[in-house]
Design a protein that fits this description.
Layout lengths: L2 H9 L17 E5 L2 E5 L10 H18 L3 H12 L6 E2 L3 E3 L2 E7 L7 E6 L7 E5 H4 L7 E7 L5 E7 L7 E6 L5 E6 L2 E6 L5 E7 L6 E8 L8 E4 L6 E6 L5 E7 L4 E7 L8 E4 L7 E6 L14 E6 L7 E6 L9 E4 L5 E8 L3 E8 L2 E8 L7 H4 L1 E2 L8 E4 L9 E7 L6 E6 L4 E7 L11 E9 L5 E9 L10 E5 L16 H4 L4 E5 L9 H5 L7 H16 L8 E6 L1 H12 L6 E5 L5 H5 L11 H4 L5 H10 L12 E7 L8 H13 L6 E6 L10 H18 L5
């Protein structure tokens, strides 16, 4: 049987009609709230320990495998094709920290990187710090969390998760002996060393909602229980501990989705009391950094030991202020960078000799740098934006752990420029390329084109879209297009390079991202316009983007495929309900589709904290607004596009049962013959497979499904 004919069994669903999908048993439960009676036939699927649930999930996997079996050769060809572009044995660009160069190494055939260091000077060999492949032996999953080296370079605090549930175990390794110390902390969310090389601060989550809520202090060789230093009791807030870039202070940050509060203690006095910078207030976010001698002539010499604080107190897009460490209360804040409504101040990185900040304007990121010598009056007037020329790209700070360094490392990439690491010399204003991601197989960026266009929503909002395609791809409406979206939490979707994506572009597929409201591309106001009782803007923006791409003859409705994950999976479910006629196929990863039931269950991870993103359904107005777009609640008896829905059994962010219930219910309602496939990774969590080869297999399956649905089988 030739490969082209085998793919037709997926393109034409009638040829797989002999395969019967699993049908979940109906076990109705009823709940009433605000006078509204809800019936849920599939709530029982959340019983993870129930063998019947596991059997049902395994049956879904078997059905998906059977339907996609004709694409197995195609999947393998795609896998080998994508693998052939990757330099499997490779080194990261080393970064310097206290006399050592730290880097990672990947080895052909190994799933995970190895972490190394070597002295910055001399001819000493490489020192293996952590081999994640060894840590992953016997495990189906491994993720590295904390990786913190003590100031004397002797101790490494690191945390790992081996289930995908984002539940990390913290350990300390003596880098001199290579042995682990007799210390182990569970459910750790962050960690930071004090300057004495024997005190480690760490935060932990609770064992029900996974909310990071307690701060502990561990002292090496102290056999007493670690003292509890702080307990965050407000269920909206989560905490983390971090060291300032100067190394002088430890910052304890408590933050919700809309407010924050910071405390500090000297890293040289780890037994000291944490002091409050400014008490939390509703809708006030602030994030401190530190500079020991900030040379702005508007600050008295005696007060130049300051916290540099990014705050939204002057506007939703933030501003930068300085606060004296001796008395950092809000009445003493001095504005350094004013709020600019059209420019989002996203982050700030101080160095001893210069200051760097990231800002977003018209949906694009910019890196701005200023030399701090000699003293100056205004930051903006004396700063420089590092120039970038492509219409759509992503630029972000790289590894810059040293406070005393004359350069700023950043990464740059676009749809057609592979990820590149640069060092920007602040004095000369010159960028030096340290490394560009190798793309094997003769990749020629001149064969591809990238664009940035705008769609217009019904209320007049201009929605940025980023596109890439091969220059030979027709622009007459006949080309297939994959449209990606997210639009939640104020997160910006980066325009990044993917050598895997070339397998689509080279087959004539156009790729696009819709930077819709709810995301952070245009700052906090863009986020505000797509959350709470404005959430439907996210979905209508995506539909307007799809219609715009069709109107501009990039594609047509019979060749338009859409993709999203997590909150982007909510987007997939919502637009699939609103306009199923507009899309040919849907790929949905770990989708948040049972919004109403999840937000009504305060015992679940994320729920209470996310009242500030979605609303609180205990409030009637929030309940009914949420219900109006919840994908699970709004499934109807009508035709739907072909769908591939994926999840992980150990997902802690969006529980597996949400897509399981969604698929079970949709099977009973859809009136079409399009495939509805549900693939569950039984050994992973929210991010899918952790090993790079396993992850590539997952991408190959996605692409085979997508391309076969489009009739592309070569």
């Amino acid at each position: 049987m030739n490969p082209e004919s085998t793919q037709e069994t997926v393109v034409n669903a009638e040829t797989t009609s002999h395969l019967q999908p699993p049908i979940a048993a109906r076990k109705p439960t009823e709940q009433r709230l605000h006078g509204d009676l809800r019936s849920d036939d599939y709530a029982w699927l959340r019983e993870k320990s129930n063998p019947e649930v596991i059997r049902h999930l395994e049956a879904e996997n078997a059905y998906t495998d059977a339907v996609l079996k004709p694409t197995e050769l195609f999947q393998d060809a795609l896998y080998q094709e994508m693998l052939s572009r990757i330099q499997q044995t490779d080194l990261s660009v080393p970064y310097q920290l206290r006399g050592f160069l730290y880097f990672t190494k990947t080895i052909e055939g190994k799933q995970y990187p190895q972490h190394y260091r070597r002295p910055s000077r001399g001819n000493a060999g490489d020192e293996l710090l952590l081999d994640l492949n060894m840590l992953a032996e016997g495990q189906s999953f491994l993720a590295l969390g904390a990786f913190e080296v003590s100031d004397d370079n002797r101790l490494l605090a690191y945390s790992t998760d081996n289930t995908g549930f984002r539940q990390y175990t913290l350990q300390i390794k003596d880098l001199t002996s290579g042995q682990l110390l007799p210390f182990r902390a569970e459910r750790v969310t962050s960690a930071a060393w004090a300057a004495d090389n024997r005190t480690l601060f760490y935060t932990v989550e609770d064992d029900v909602t996974k909310r990071s809520h307690r701060l502990y202090r561990h002292t090496i060789e102290d056999t007493n229980p670690d003292p509890l230093l702080f307990d965050e009791t407000d269920e909206r807030f989560r905490i983390e501990i971090e060291r300032t870039r100067s190394g002088a202070y430890l910052i304890l940050l408590s933050a919700s989705h809309t407010a924050s509060e910071a405390r500090f203690v000297s890293s040289s006095n780890p037994a000291g009391e944490f002091q409050l910078i400014a008490a939390r207030e509703d809708a006030h976010e602030y994030y401190p950094e530190h500079h020991p001698n900030f040379p702005i002539d508007r600050i008295d010499l005696a007060l130049r030991d300051v916290f540099l604080i990014r705050t939204n107190s002057g506007g939703r897009t933030f501003r930068l202020v300085a606060a004296p460490v001796k008395n950092p209360q809000r009445s003493n804040w001095l504005e350094l960078i004013p709020n600019r409504p059209a420019v989002m101040l996203s982050s700030v990185q101080p160095f001893r000799s210069h200051l760097v900040w990231v800002e977003r304007e018209d949906g694009l990121p910019f890196l701005r740098v200023i030399l701090l010598n000699p003293p100056f009056t205004e930051l903006l007037d004396n700063s420089l934006r590092i120039p970038f020329t492509e219409p759509a790209y992503n630029a972000a700070p790289g590894a810059n752990p040293e406070f005393d360094q004359s350069h700023f490392r950043f990464s740059y990439e676009s749809f057609i420029t592979p990820r590149s690491v640069f060092d920007f010399d602040v004095a000369t204003r010159h960028s030096t390329l340290r490394k560009q991601q190798p793309v094997l197989g003769g990749y020629d960026s001149s064969q591809y084109a990238s664009e940035r266009i705008h769609a217009v929503a019904s209320d007049g909002a201009r929605i940025p879209l980023s596109l890439v395609y091969k220059k030979t791809t027709p622009r007459d409406g006949s080309s297939p297009l994959l449209l990606y979206g997210y639009g939640s939490y104020g997160i910006s979707m980066p325009v990044n390079f993917s050598s895997n994506r070339l397998s689509l572009l080279d087959r004539g597929v156009i790729y696009a991202i819709a930077h819709i409201r709810g995301g952070g591309e245009l700052g906090k106001p863009w986020h505000d316009a797509g959350r709470m009782r404005h959430k439907r803007n996210t979905f209508t923006d995506f539909i307007a983007s799809a219609e715009n791409l069709i109107a501009r003859y990039y594609t047509n409705g019979k060749k338009l495929v859409i993709e999203g994950g997590s909150a982007g999976g909510l987007l997939m479910g919502a637009v699939g309900n609103l306009r199923p006629d507009l899309f040919h196929a849907v790929i949905s990863h770990v989708p948040f589709v049972d919004v109403l039931n999840t937000m009504l269950d305060a015992s679940l991870p994320l729920t209470v904290g996310e009242y500030e993103e979605w609303g609180n359904p205990q409030i009637a107005e929030d309940y009914f607004y949420m219900k109006s777009y919840c994908p699970y609640s709004n499934l109807e008896r009508k035709p739907y596009p072909a769908m591939l829905i994926k999840t992980g059994l150990n997902d802690s962010q969006v529980m597996y049962w949400e897509p399981a219930k969604y698929v079970a219910k949709l099977r009973t309602l859809k009136t079409d013959s399009n495939p509805l496939l549900f693939k569950i990774n039984m050994g992973a969590g929210h991010g899918g497979a952790s090993g790079r080869y396993d992850y590539l297999r997952e991408i190959a399956l996605d692409y085979a499904f997508l391309l076969a649905r489009l009739g592309i089988t070569q």
